[in-house]
Amino acid sequence: MIDVVDLHIHSHYSMATSKDMDLEHLSFWAKKKGVTILATGDITHPLWVKNLKDKLIDLQNGFFEFDGVRFVLAGEVNIVFEHNGKSRKVHIVIAVPSFEILSKVNEKLSQYGDLSIDGRPTLFIKGEEFIRVLKSISPEIKIIPAHIWTPWFGVFGSKSGFSSLEECFGSETNYISALETGLSSDPFMNYIVRDIDSFTLVSNSDAHSPQNIAREANVIKDVSSYEDLFTVIENADNRRFLFSVEFFPEEGKYFGDGHRKCGIGFIPERPDREVCPVCGKPFTYGVYHRVMECANWKKKERTNKKIPFRYTVPLKEILSSVLGKGRSTKTVSVVYDKILSDFGTELNVLLFSNDDELSEKLDKKVANFILAVRKGNVKKEIGYDGKYGKISLLEEKVDLFDR
Fold first, then answer.
1. pTM above the 0.70 mark?
2. At 263, phi and psi to the nearest 5?
3. Which of its termini does the chain have fewer beta carbons within 10 Å around, N or C?
4. Which of 394, 398, 388, 345 is nearest to 371 (CA)?
5. Domain extent for 338
6. Which of helix, strand or coil describes residue 161?
7. Domain tally for the chain?
8. For residue 279, is it within any domain?
9. 30-43: b or e for each residue (b if 16 or more CB lie within 10 Å)?
């Protein structure tokens, strides 16, 4: 069995999330997308945890089930601390295999911040101490720094990040299970950075609404348990970890440098362009800038634990472009549901169907768009400073990194 795994989402108890981020909608959309193993999100929030306890069925293998979908108890926290005279804010995904362990985690973490305020709580604790606290509770707790390059909350981010993992997590760095690339970077970009060679890269959706589940994900064979899942991930077992599902990083909202309110976004060719010509304030340095900075502005690829990856563009985004209608319109939804009735799931359409099947069952323009995405034959309008980029068709492939 091929499992599609998304380990980072949020519930409706997180700020700026859809009210539909509940188990009913999550399982409904997981099945439409083709996700078989999904994070619960927000495992530190007391009301969400109560809801999970009431509704999930314990499968006795570290997974829980709701309406045919397996769930992992996993959520994101924001740790805040001062280092070298600078305030640092780092988002981290944690996963646990049982409610018993989760109860101990939340009892301990409540000493560092109010867990009831937000589904992604702010905890005033240093990175090294954070890992040490969790490992003292159980070695089965898994720790994944989230969207590691984003400016404000990535461990390497330009606004409050670090130059190395050891600078943030100290002697506990080796307990990290994997690193999450985030929407604004892909594995190839990470491969050029020397200091993360020993870590597996994973990709997750960080969904704030159900329809965004699996916009990035991980495709793994025959996952039998929580322990099995993380063994495959930590060992970068490419016999079973088949590939990750990726945004084109240029589409991510923090890829380029720029100022959203000034309408200026660009890909830096050198590190010394600092001030916006419109307002005179410093630019928000994007993910590309930070990756290149950490790679000393050299694009030479390194080894890393290489798992293959494939790009996708969400099907509703493709339909919106082809039909000239908004993603949330009835026109797009009707066509979307018709396509899923023929293919089963969205990821079957985007990734697993063959070229002939696409050409046979889909409108020619839709099929051509999907095939172009698979080949990387697309035009990329970059995202920057919180503004998403845009992917459209292009006759000739142009690629910043020559992937």
1. yes
2. 70, 30
3. N
4. 394
5. 313-381+387-393
6. coil
7. 2
8. no
9. bbbbbbbbbbbbbb
Q: For the segment 293-351, what is each residue's pLDDT rounded down to a tens digit?
A: 998 888 877 666 789 999 999 999 999 999 999 999 999 999 999 999 999 999 999 99
Residue length of the chain: 403
Element (DSSP H or E) covering residue 142 = strand 142-145
Three-class secondary structure of residue 69 per DSSP? strand
CA–CA distance, 23 with 30 (Å, rounded to integer) = 10
Q: What is the pLDDT of residues 243-293, one digit of tens each?
A: 999 999 999 999 999 999 999 999 998 777 778 889 998 899 999 999 999
Radius of gyration of the chain (CA): 20
Provide the 10 A C-beta neighbour count for residue 168.
Answer: 26
Alpha-carbon distance of 40 to 26, in angstroms, equals 9
Say how far apart CA 336 and CA 316 lie, in whole Å: 7
Instruction: Report the CATH number at residue 146.
Output: 3.20.20.140
**Among residues 217, 92, 111, which one has the least CA distance to residue 161?**
92
* CB atoms near residue 279 (< 10 Å): 11
- The CA-to-CA distance between both ends of the chain, in Å, stands at 29
